[in-house]
Amino acid sequence: MQRRPALAACAALSLAPWAQGARDPIAHWAPQFQPSTLSARAQREELGWFRAAAAPFRGQSIRVVSEIIDTHEYEAKVLAPAFSAITGIQVQHDLLPEGEVVRRIREQMLKGTPHYDAYVNDSDLIGTHWRYDATLVLSDWMRGEGRAQTLPTLDLKDFIGLAFCTAPDGDLYQLPDQQFANLYWFRKDWFSRPDLQRRFQVRYGYRLGVPLNWSAYEDIAEFFTHEVQRLDGRRIYGHMDYGKRDPSLGWRFTDAWLSMAGQGSPGYPNGLPVDEWGIRMEGCRPVGASVARGGGTNSPAARYALERYLDWLRRFAPPGAAELDFNQAGPVPGQGAIAQQIFWYSAFTAAMSKPGLPVNHADGRPKWRVAPSPHGAYWQSGMQRGYQDVGAWTLLKRTPLARRRMAWLYAQFCVCKAVSLKKSLTGLTFVRESDIRSEAMSRLAPRLGGLVEFYRSPSRVYWTPTGPNVPDYPELAELWWQHIGAATEGRQSPQQALDALAEAMDASLAQVGRSQFGPCAPQLRERLPEAEWRALPGAAQPRLPNEKPPGRTIAYERLLRMWQFGSDAK
Amino acid sequence: MPLSRRQTLACGATLGFPAAAAPQPAATPAPLQLAAEVFPPFSQWVQGRAEGLDCELVRAVLAGLGRGAEIQLLPWKRALLELERGTLDGVIGISRGNLNEREEMLAFPEEPLAGSHSHLYFRVEQPFAFDGLFTLKGRSVAVLAGYQYPPDFMAAAYFRREPSATHEQSLRKLLARRVDLALVHAGVGEHLLQREGWQRELAADPTPLAPGRLYVGFARQRGHALLAQRFGEALRRYKAQPAYRALLARYGVRPENLLAAPL
User: Fold this and answer.
1) CB of A519 within 8 Å of any CB in chain B?
2) What are residue B120's phi and psi, to 5 degrees?
3) How far apart are CA A167 and CA B157, in angstroms?
4) How many of the other CB atoms lie within 10 Å of CB of B229?
5) Are B69 and B62 in contact, with CB atoms under 8 Å apart?
6) Is B212 helix (H, G, I), strand (E, B) or coil?
7) How far does the CA of residue A566 sit from the closest CA of chain B (Å)?
8) Assembly ipTM
């Protein structure tokens, strides 16, 4: 799930800025979408297609919604008015907090409440859409009722996140609109200082560099918070996080934190038979989350993940971090007092790159870099490496046909090549290969701290969203922040909180199983005695006698080669 | 065509005997033991000898460095196995791996042999247009055993992957209707269609897939890191000469099939 600093929820009802009888709206808008990967002529032709395809709907209006990030603000403020001007379809593009978007789409799916004609909904919900039969299957739609409204130059294969929007049966449910990854963020300028390198080497016995495991991350956090303490006259810290008991605390954990610790099984994209939420799968059917049912939500690795999170938050983060929510914590690294952050969303890149911030040089080059996040003591090769998701246009079956067609036109307009590169350069949430490979992106890359190198690398596909295993994302995600919150507030030990969470997950899976049908609906397996669940394939790993192996680091330049030189299949 | 046992024995005579183990005069280092797969026109059998564009190119560049090479053609999976066993000095036409993980084992020259990409081939009578992985739903696709295809391609449950020993075998399976599609290297596919006269029966979807770079990877455990560096420099110089363009023309390889995407 993606979260960004909260702005006031806003709605932008697009109004054509050109008066009746003024110049052609395509001639007016096309130059504003430069640079583009299309030639000027092809760009005008693509915009012209929208005008023609929308002709039967001229004068009508639609309502769509997305969360509050720079990319969607650009859509609401620029693309919606442009679409209205070109097509004559009025668009109300609302921006709401992510949690509210998820709540509304679920309500509309299950109760039919007609909130919106289209949603930008994270592909984390693919398992939900696939199982409830309430979401339009776009691969069928484009060949059927939506054919006349499907852009011939949409070029689906150009979307890097299309696989995330595809269900296990090969049906495409969502159209990518904005994509982001969770990476490790650090101050390369500080890590490169010879005096700090010497001190770290003397104290810890290995080189200060990008941490490859959580032991090294912890050492570096301790080093900056307690050993270095002050740099250039200001107090600094070796870690940043947040801990307020609110919905964003849940995403902090369900966005692959447990699998980064080593909870779950090896296997792409989420681990099989146990995934990063701790859900055990039998084929496509979820059968339980607690270790007694073969799951991993309250496993030793999960407990380790929660303990490390709590320990670092209390010992190494700035005072008050535990009382912040995601939105409040997000801008903190950009203020210049944080050395590293293990769990950082690339959706913050636009905010982090703003001129004048102390984390950037005067000429705009960043003092920071991004790298793959380190993994915990339980992690093994082949497990999920990290989290990535795509916010994607989602249409529901019960929306009236004409409104679906208009919404589909607007959805495609927001991602068509005529506007996509300009949008990408504004919001830095790339979805198209053609944008990522463009010359404009090459020119921008040195200012983005390694983000473009990540997206150009074939290794990016190893960062994956919540997959199809989670049968009702809104329902199950709600449990996490409440139970994890009991641990952050100190009311329960980490193990107690996770035991309660696992119980609640099992109960919720059983409940969801009663409202879904078919062979992929949840169906709990029996609780097993320890000797029996331990014998299951992929059963929770036993507690490690040493959860802090020696720290390992790597030079950033060498790590970058992983992204730059990752290559083809041969 | 799969490598026959006789060919394996004839060309792999020194397999299992590391070059360093045999006593050699210091002035004439032993020829490097290299492996490639049958990958026409880049590496192929010609009268019992490993020939082809890459074989010629590698021999020429190494000769300029005063080194000889004995090249074996092995099934790809086996070449990688021999590399792990330490019986080879290097492998021709190998990528760095999706996560550049092979850099641990292999020293890579800065200069690749070539950029690479693949296409999905289909039978002309059953046209196919790739528009994302989901368009493979319900189909069977011939792939190369031992290749590391992207994990989303390998994990997708909605189409079947049918491993082959060589690209030629993949295309023959396609012709025989044993698969619906074959994922084949662009240069190899083009060559095989021409050589075998399959242009009327088979065609390629134009979408380039799995783009990357192919190198000569030199075994680190044999101390070839410096050789890899020198090879890369010499290769870059060679590719700037008319002789390289003549080599491409002689093998009928279009330079656009060898372009590498920017890093």
Assistant:
1) no
2) -90, 120
3) 9
4) 15
5) yes
6) strand
7) 4
8) 0.89
